[in-house]
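Next up, a specimen:

>
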Amino acid sequence: MSDFTALPDLAVRSNRAAVVAASDESFEERENLIHPWEPKFSPETFGTKGQEYDGWETRRRRNEPGNDWAIIRLGMPGRIRGVVIDTAWFKGNYPPFASVQACRASGYPTVAELDSAEWVEVVEKSPLTGDAKHEFPVDSEGVFTHVRLTMFPDGGIARIRVHGDVVPDPALLIGVTVDLAALENGARTLACSNMFYSAPDNMLAPGLARNQSEGWETGRRRDDGNDWAVLALAAQGVPELIEIDTTNLVFNAPAEVRLRAIDLPDGAPVPPADDPAWFDLLPTTAVQPDTPHRIRLGAEFCRPATHARVDIYPDGGIARLRILGSLTAAGENTLTTRWS
C-alpha cells in the first residue's frame, strides 16, 4: 500500500462520513461505499435483484447519456493526499473508468446547493480493473468537505477511501473546551512501539469503541519493556481533563498508564522519552479493565503542550484517549492558518 494509506480515512462511516446522494443504486445501495470493514462476498446469495454485493452497484445504462456518480460528505474536512477505489468482488460488472472531484462547502449544504459548488478534479478519469484496489496519489493543497465519485458509465464499486490530513474548522474549536487529542480536531499518532492488533490512531477516533478492534491494542510483550505511543495534539493547548478508556478490554487492558506532554516549536522533532522537557499529565497510575477513567488534572499539570506520550505497562490496549482542554492563542492561530 502507498504511504498515504497510513493517513486517516476522511470518508469512512466510522469517522462520521455519509454518502448524501447518488445517481442510481438499483442493485446495491450507495452507503456501502464507506463501510469501515473490508468488502465481503458470499457466492450464490441471490436476492430479488440478482447476486448480492457489498458495494455500490448501478443498473446497466442502455443508450443513455451521462455517467453514474455518488457524493460523499467527508466526516472530517481536510487536505486529500490519496484516494483508493476498490472494486473488490466486482469482476464482470465493474466500471472501466472512474474519476474523483472534491469541493469545499460551508455549513450543511443540500445536494442542490452542492451542484453549484466549485468542484476540483483530484483524480482524473482513470482505468479500473475488476476485483482490485486502485491507489491514486493526490497533489492538492485545498481543504475539502465533499467528494464526488463518478464511474464511466455504470457498474459496481465496493469502497472508496479518501486519505488525508484532517483540517478542522477553527470556528467550532476556538473559545470552548476541546479534545486536543481528537482525530477529528487534527490530532495524529506520530509513532508507537507496537500495533500488532490495531493502530493507535483508533484511540483518537470519534465516538465510543464498539469492540476491541476499534481501539489500540498491542501484542504481548515478553521482555522488560513497555508499549507507548506519541501523538501530535490538534494544536497548542492547555490540558485540563483526561480520559483513558479501556472499554471492551476485559482481559487485555494495561496494568498501569502514564501520560506525559511537551511543548515544541513548529517543525521541531519530538525528543526521546528520557528528555527532561517531557512533563507529567498523569503519573504512572493503575487502571481497571473495561472502564472509562476520567481524571481532572491539578493546576500544576495544566501547562501548554503540543504533543503527548502515553506509556502503557507492560502492554495491552486503550479504547479511547481524550485530552480535554483549551487552545492557547498560538494554537488558535495555527488552526486558523491551516483552515484559510
In short: The longest strand covers residues 68-86.
